[in-house]
Specification:
The protein is mainly α. It has helices at 2-7, 12-41, 43-62, 69-72, 87-118, 123-151, 153-168, 177-191, 193-205, 211-240, 244-274. It is globular and about 60 Å long. The model has no long low-confidence stretch (mean pLDDT 88).
Length: 277
Amino acid sequence: MALVGTWFTVGAGMAIGIASAGQALGQGGVPFSGAYLIEALGWRDAMMAQGVITLGLLMPLGLFLRDPPVAANSGILSEETPSGLPNALITAWISLAVIFCCACMAVPLMHLVPLIQGRGFSAPEAGSVLFLALMVAIIGRVAFGRLTDMIGALPAYLTASAWQTVLVFGFVLIGRLDAFYLYAIIYGFGYAGVMTTVIVTTRNLTAPARRASSLGIIMAFAYAGHGLGGWQGGYFFDLTADYQWTFANAAIAGVLNLAIVSALWMTIHRRQVAIPA
């Protein structure tokens, strides 16, 4: 993702959105195909098959990656961030935000299917709801990538995060399968923008010379947030035999993410206003 952002100086948000759409396809396609592999091979051999397929695809595809010619010939990249804030501070700030952002995001990804099954629907029906949300997410990632080019990365990140936060608890209020499908479409489009806008925000706010390492650190905290969100979801379900607190905690994590990102946006905005004066 850092490489994609370096190749494009204009329209980088759209380019990253298109690239990250592949993540949405993987998030939906791998579990969906995995269900059939488990039926055919058992869970151990299914995981082995997915691992072999992934390795077989990633290695040759990785050989096609190239550094952008402009970056290769432009000399030493700047150590300064566009806002003037220290790069370490920007990286830490976004890293803290994505822990809560991804804790919120992880709950439907990991617990929506069992939630729907608990409403009395079959595993294929429940899985198809999540699959639909993640297929819609492909469009959402591209759309929010374009939005970052139009209104800026941080405002787009706030928009996607607010969309996810406001809607995440609604899943526990649904009881009909057709309503789950409709809600999944609406939720999936907005939630999808979060990861795209996180990547573009990192690209736009960090120092060019530290862009790739900053993105690696931030993504590490993002996946830690995914683990936290999934774990708390299971813990509170085991504690209460209900998904109310699981999804409520996801919404709370989303609010914390919004507060942290809003504070970053206001800090940068104040600096930009103060500099001309």
